[in-house]
Protein 1
Amino acid sequence: MKKIFIPLSLLLLFSCNKSENQEEVKTQLMEVISEDKVPPPPPPKQEVPISAMVSAKEENIELKVSAPENNVIAKKIIKNGEIEIQIAEIREAQNQTTAIVKKNNAYIQTERFVNTDIDERLFLTIRVPHKNFDGLVNSFSNGIGSVLSKSISSDDVTEEYTDVSIKLGNKKIYLEKYRDMLRSAKTTKDMLEIQENIRELEDEIDVSEGRLRFIDDRVNYSTLNLVLYKEKVRSSTTSNIGFRSRFGDSFTEGWNSFVTFFLGIISFWPFLLLIPIIILIWRKWQKSRLKK
């Protein structure tokens, strides 16, 4: 009996020690887990210079700025034309021109008159709505005189207009970002640096907006340069220029007179053909008369 009791006591004691050790291990593990859940202390704050902030924000802007949505932009076509017309009387042609301009809802932008010993010229720059450009050109071509020269050009500026519009939108985004940075600037140096960037952006935006306005104006209103030309009749007696020019005029008048006389004789060629026939008939008549 004694022999059996001693091993049982030892076994019971060992089991109790083992359970106590397990409880102790569990307690230690719970403490370690709770320590792991505590967040680590934040790192010490560092002062960042404003120049580095500007660079960082610029890089951030570069990542966020994207081209605006692909809105459909209508075709931008600039039409220009030049016409030179020879007319009989300047005043009459000018009145006809005014009527044609009003009919096509156009207006005369510039007007210049030149009067020389050789000719009279009236230079007109006419701005006309894009849709009425062809009608205006046809009215001058068919209406007031003889067309000496005519040229029409069409320039497609859609690509340029789109490019300027996209860049303008991006510059406005940059400008707003810089203004936000200016409100958070802490030193005078930083403020001056940001203000300089804002000033440069504002200048670039003004240039881009001016370019778009110019393109819109040229697209909406086409330009026609019109020259009304009247040649004067010159003579050596009425010319008020120097002797050399007057001598040249006299020589030219003599040559022109000879050419006019020669062309006048040629204009009688049907009658010239009758002369040999008349001579032949007259000779036959003479021969027949002598035989009688």
Note: Residues 266 and 272 are 9 Å apart (CA to CA).
Protein 2
Amino acid sequence: MLIGDVARLSGVSARMLRHYESLGLVRPTGRTDGGYRKYSRDDIRRIFHVESLRSLGLSLREVSRALDDPGFTPSDLVDDLIRQTRERITAETELLTRLRRIGAAEPAGWKDVLQIIALLQALGSKSAGTRQRAALSSVEEAPVPVEALVEAALSESDPNVAGALRWALAQLGDGGLTLLAEGLRSPVAEVRKRAVQSIAEIADGEATALLQNALANPDIVVRRYAALALGARGVADAIPTLIDMVVEETSDVDAADALSALASRPALADQIAARLVDCLAHSGVEASARRRLTQALADIPGVTTSRALAELSHDEDRTVALTAAYILRMRDAR
């Protein structure tokens, strides 16, 4: 078979076939009377073998070794090809992500593109100061895609940078809530924590709904952050978790403040007081927790609280009794 016929059959150009011949990779076994290259069936079979190995990413030198070296073993080479392919996929995925983010920002011109690229690079900087400046300027200087800000916020460990990123997301409103909601389902505890913290700073009805759903999250840290944020927003669903935080001495001062804010609504004051009293009466509650619960009653208005404090002023625990009596005097003096 002549070179032109082989090229049509194999899909390998005549020029490449001549290159293979110059490398000694595929040599035609014969010539015609006119001096033209003539390929046998074995030659064509070898061409297909060469192309098959090239499709795996082997260089022509590696292909030659694989076909001609009897002692050649493919395992190490295949492992190396797997590593190279993974690295290439990672690089290409990163490039695709970057391009999508630039496209999502809808840049008006190349100047905008360059600004976006600079900010994206700054968000990925090893310098915390650079990342913080990028977060603070992301809202004003260039329309950085919300996906990039969410990804940065969910991975940021520096508290100052994390705060700047949460602020930037809050300025964008509900644009990143879908991605942050995915963060709440992350298998990584730190990511879940950062997600709920970011949602808590977005003053939006959809954010509030996400926080309410987060009260049922399996992660207790997520539930606590959600409760604190909801308490500040006047959402009664947060009350049980907030009281648990007081009992467990976990951000108990913040939890008590949130309960106080909720109790400014008359409809909730008696409900909160009744729950605090129920906890105080529970036999399994430790003495230190009973003292914190008594202190939490200080800023809860209403008759239910006053009656509870009057009873507690005679409590067997002297500290609880003295605390309740003191709170009562302060309330009477108002």
Note: The domain at 3-72 is CATH 1.10.1660.10 (Multidrug-efflux Transporter Regulator; Chain: A; Domain 2).
